[in-house]
Amino acid sequence: MDKLGSNPANRCPLTPLGFLERTATVYGDCPSVVYHNTVYTWAETQRRCLRLASGLCSLGISRRDVVSVLAPNIPAMYEMHFGVPMSGAVLNTINIRLDARTISVLLRHSGSKLVFCDILSLPLLHDAISLFPSSHNPPQIIPIEDPHEPNTPTHSYSLTYEKLLEMGNPEFKWIRPESEWDPMILNYTSGTTSAPKGVVHCHRGIFIVTVDSLTDWSVPKQSVYLWTLPMFHANGWSFPWGMAVMGGTNICLRRVEAAAVFDAINKHKVTHLCGAPVVLNMLSNTPESVRKPLPGPVQVLTAGAPPPAAVLHRTEALGFTVSHGYGLTETAGLTISCAWKGQWNRLPASERARLKSRQGVRTPSMATIDVIDGTTGQSVKRDGQTMGEIVLQGGCVMLGYLKDEKATKAAIRQDGWFYTGDVGVMHPDGYVEIKDRSKDVIISGGENISSVEVESILYGHPMVNEAAVVARPDEFWGETPCAFVSLKEGVGSSKSPTEKDIIAWCREKMPHYMVPKTVVFKAELPKTSTGKIQKYVLRNQAKEMGPAKQKSRI
Ligand SMILES: Nc1ncnc2c1ncn2[C@@H]1O[C@H](COP(=O)(O)OP(=O)(O)OP(=O)(O)O)[C@@H](O)[C@H]1O
């Protein structure tokens, strides 16, 4: 036994890039990517990705160079997930909703050599590049034209994405990683709590998270997958590679709007889609006149922010089957998921939604997860109440933050854990539930209040569209919960709930120390470019209101 181990036949680096070749063999004549009336087959997608890799090499791109892409969910964006790393380069997807200043910072920080840019984002990219200091060489720009978009801006670039593909060789021998630890992906975090950080993942990590996510969500072969989650957000939680494994069909959508989503589900008989809770909220609040009945079972995977039980309940009431997972850019996709048990289906709908809003247990390939006390480093009690930090260990944890050793050391510590910065509890049945991000916990009179818990009660109010709860300074309690609320469309001013009504709703349903002492109504809550509510903006607004006075005593 002692002499057995790795050998030349089993030592091949794990990489998701090989999925494409296999799928082109099995499903070569089946649809791979659909966008309006453009339909590619898996054989065509493989050739297009090889042409892209070969074209990049002919432009001088080599191993470990960073190649960026600024594009929505269009076919080229899908192809980048294979074609760019097949040239040996590291793929860096950039969020198209960022502002020019942030894009400029990310491009300079990543040292990007080349940027593929959707034709509609070209003016934004030009603004970003104009902010480069003269000492910094700008990356080469290659526009991606879109024949399906009317009124696109004109440009003077002679080399476009399609021309590069024409130049490329469809028989190209793609550049395999020398080691499975070779970098493959550079993703920036959403910037919800601080400036975005550059997360680097290797081929091995992406392989693991892809196979893990397919298994955990039980995705069958030849599923029809609607792209409602941006591929620029943590590579669409690994499903660009996942759909290739299963020979699925990728339905691309440039804009995620309720009518377009319901139309696409019907037209293409969609079976699967992913989205942050904000997308579920949009679907479940769509007026009946716009909604269409589902043509068959549709599986929805939600993650990225805590899904309030009321939103899960409303989405399932439309016929969707919702699964809930948790992950971070740092883990390349989902690492915790609310594994569902058959016997729970017999419970009342509201109880099912409450159980489903828990984040859950580790996905199969994660080594271990825990909730630990920040000072002792010991596991917290499994009582569903004692809060601690969620920590993880597993093969898809990032290599580290690009050019940021200090932040890498703070996140990946000597004790072997990756520290998520999320505060949660461990329930007696071994399921984890997030209570807050550590920066969002409200400390009132020495009690920790989970803003997520208060928000989930607010979402249950029939007239509340969105809710976020933050700390407001308080002369007596130190901090008290301050709720920012937007109301559903069509709620007339006569019917609109008042601050008093909202407070009364909360007082019926939660301990009084958790009840918001201030309620602010807003037409819309501020969001990050990935659709997460920007609590730090609201926290600043609550701070500017000044300390709540004596009346805030309970
Ligand atoms: N199912 C979920 N329930 C609750 N929160 C979730 C869930 N899934 C993800 N999250 C939150 O999203 C975070 C990961 O988000 P992401 O990697 O997009 O960047 P970010 O943390 O929002 O940005 P930044 O680190 O720059 O502030 C997690 O740490 C967690 O707070």
Automatic annotation (TrEMBL):
* Keyword Ligase belongs to the record: yes
Q: Is the Ligase keyword given for this protein?
A: yes
Its required cofactor(s), as named, are:
Mg(2+)
Q: What is its EC number?
A: 6.2.1.12
Catalyses: (E)-4-coumarate + ATP + H(+) = (E)-4-coumaroyl-AMP + diphosphate; (E)-4-coumaroyl-AMP + CoA = (E)-4-coumaroyl-CoA + AMP + H(+); (E)-4-coumarate + ATP + CoA = (E)-4-coumaroyl-CoA + AMP + diphosphate
Give me any GO biological process, just one: phenylpropanoid metabolic process
Pfam family membership, one: AMP-binding
The top EC class is ligase
SUPFAM superfamilies named in the record: Acetyl-CoA synthetase-like
Q: Which UniProt keywords apply?
A: Ligase
Q: Which GO-annotated molecular functions does the record name?
A: 4-coumarate-CoA ligase activity; trans-cinnamate-CoA ligase activity
Q: Give the protein name, as stated in the record.
A: 4-coumarate--CoA ligase
Q: Which organism is it from?
A: Rhynchospora pubera
